[in-house]
Amino acid sequence: MIRLENISQSFKHHSSKIKILNHVDLVIQQGSWVSIVGPSGSGKSTLLKIMTGLLKPDTGTVYYRDLDLYRMGEREKSDFRRRHIGFVFQDFKLLPYYSVLDNVILPLYYDKKKQELYEKAKMLLLSLGIQEPLFSRLPNDLSGGEKQRVAFARALIADPDVLVCDEPTGNLDRENRDHMIEILRSFNQQGKTMILVTHDMEVAAYSNCIYLLKDGLLLPNEVNV
Ligand SMILES: Nc1ncnc2c1ncn2[C@@H]1O[C@H](COP(=O)(O)OP(=O)(O)OP(=O)(O)O)[C@@H](O)[C@H]1O
């Protein structure tokens, strides 16, 4: 279970401070699929960063079961994130001077035997529709949709319990988007927790729960699956 308690966050804009998140609480059950929707600039990516340990909020706490994420040391927190949380960023954050394959193995580079890791990375990439000729390419020589699938493979390489995706279908054409939805569903069916930010209501419709983030507040919106 992931629990956010009393999260507030402001950012400075010129001389004033703008409150993006205003005392946000959220509980996400293990194995559930939660989608967060809301207008552009409402703070969705900021909330994802806070719940994954990338941004310490002005106030509030984030718990993974009983572990308080922001009470961990930097090293402990980054190990925890690497092992438990896969994150697909909106802009992918692939390293430009590393090949596709090397980008995918990065989270486990120091943990596992390279041969084993490369085999797993190849299988993941193939399952996501990225074929062998692309394995040695640099990210800048990929299409947006291909980059996105490589970012997915990197997020999944460590078998995380939680997959966090910022706009997972944003760069995909219809066929690839439908394929991505199948991947998300099968991941969720394995009992993994999914947290998505999306503008795509068809994708959000697969969630157990949709939340609207607006004016700093997170409003629940239960749906049937
Ligand atoms: N580090 C920062 N410093 C200052 N302002 C920031 C920072 N990060 C985000 N913001 C601002 O906070 C607001 C919320 O940003 P955020 O990226 O979380 O929104 P979003 O809902 O994900 O938007 P989109 O749907 O367009 O991706 C925006 O106005 C953004 O400019």
Write the layout of secondary structure elements.
Layout: E1 2-13, E2 16-28, E3 33-37, H1 44-51, E4 59-64, E5 67-68, H2 74-84, E6 85-88, H3 100-105, H4 114-127, H5 144-156, E7 162-166, H6 174-189, E8 193-197, H7 201-204, E9 209-214, E10 217-222
Parallel strand pairs: 3-8, 3-9, 6-7, 7-8
Antiparallel strand pairs: 1-2, 1-4, 4-5, 9-10
This protein binds adenosine-5'-triphosphate.
Describe this structure in words.
This protein has one domain (2-222): Rossmann fold. The chain is 32% helix and 28% strand. The chain has helices spanning 44-51, 74-84, 100-105, 114-127, 144-156, 174-189, 201-204; strands at 2-13, 16-28, 33-37, 59-64, 67-68, 85-88, 162-166, 193-197, 209-214, 217-222. The relative contact order is 0.19. The protein binds adenosine-5'-triphosphate (ATP). Adenosine-5'-triphosphate is lined by residues 11, 20, 38, 40-46. One of its GO terms (molecular function) is ATP binding.
